[in-house]
Known about the structure:
157 residues, alpha/beta, six-stranded mixed β-sheet, globular
Amino acid sequence: MKSLLKDKNVRTEIIFKSESQVSEKVIEFAKARRLEPITEVPFLGRSIDIVWQWKNGTITAVEVKKRGYDIERAIHQAKFCLLGAHRVYICIPNTDINDSKTDMLKGLGIGLILVKHNDNNGFYLNYVIGSRPNSLRNKEFTKLLRKHISEVKETVL
Length: 157
């Protein structure tokens, strides 16, 4: 079965030295939409890589990995984010991912964002799988996550 994510026009191996390099692309994307992305938000003894709130209060969480083969770990962390966030994404460099992983993400409602390299030596984000509204979210955990977002915002300002 052919992978859903193969794109002949894009280089498939992008090497990033750190997760923060991948995170920068997501942060640029969010800021371009006038959102306020916050990094390393503590939540239930862990940390969510990037979080932002939309004007309507919807919380989006993004787990970032610097290599595509870390997708198993990213899925595990993203499932944890489902406890409090309304929408959850995984962001990894462009890579081929087998259909069983994409089916798993779709089943969980976790979106997939690939960082792709274009011909102008720049990068862009490609939403391959959209996140759907999270039915597993716990309202009390969402309140807690909002509190942590506010606390991190205060320390940054």
